[in-house]
């Protein structure tokens, strides 16, 4: 059995410098030497055991270091900026006022305020708000009935009656109504 080397050396070339030829000859000799076998131990066991240990250590050590840093790291002081309140606290420069734009803005603000007051006092809005209140009261009872019929307070969901026959479904709904105090 031959020993596998993890050295990455280019194949021997007669053109290269003498040092590279020497390294490639040494690599070839290392690859050609057989492994020394120990009595009672299979030849592949030491290699696989040592590689698995090195892999485990290669993963475990960085992982342990990361966990240590995450769990036991102290917060870092902000240093020079720790007392600085930020750019938002600094007032900006005073811009020149343009009379035309200020007057136009005031007119628009008055116009919008008038439109808002007119809309708030309109009969259409009052009618819609009243309908909304009535619908809310009416629909609230329907939603409560629907919720109680589904039996959600007993842990029964919407899909609880899918596998039932029509007779079983009616019996189930009747039981839920009876428990809820309905019909």
Automatic annotation (TrEMBL):
Residues covered by region (Disordered): 1-22
Superkingdom per UniProt: Eukaryota
PANTHER family reported for this sequence: CATHEPSIN PROPEPTIDE INHIBITOR DOMAIN-CONTAINING PROTEIN (PTHR36730:SF1), OS03G0210700 PROTEIN (PTHR36730)
Protein's name in the database: Uncharacterized protein
Organism ancestry: Eukaryota, Viridiplantae, Streptophyta, Embryophyta, Tracheophyta
């Amino acid at each position: 059995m031959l020993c596998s080397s993890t050295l990455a050396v280019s194949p021997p070339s007669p053109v290269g410098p003498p040092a590279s030829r020497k390294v490639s000859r040494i690599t070839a000799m290392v690859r050609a030497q057989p492994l020394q076998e120990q009595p009672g131990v299979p030849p592949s066991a030491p290699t696989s055991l040592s590689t698995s240990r090195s892999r485990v250590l290669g993963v475990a050590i960085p992982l342990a270091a990361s966990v240590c840093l995450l769990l036991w790291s102290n917060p870092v002081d902000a240093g020079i900026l720790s007392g600085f309140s930020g750019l938002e606290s600094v007032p900006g420069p005073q811009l020149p006022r343009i009379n035309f734009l200020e007057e136009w803005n005031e007119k628009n603000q008055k116009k919008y305020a008038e439109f808002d007051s007119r809309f708030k006092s309109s009969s259409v809005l009052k009618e819609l708000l009243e309908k909304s209140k009535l619908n809310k009261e009416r629909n609230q009872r329907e939603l409560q009935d629907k919720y109680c019929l589904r039996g959600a307070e007993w842990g029964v969901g919407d899909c609880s009656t899918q596998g039932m026959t029509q007779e079983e479904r009616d019996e189930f709904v009747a039981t839920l109504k009876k428990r809820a105090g309905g019909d």
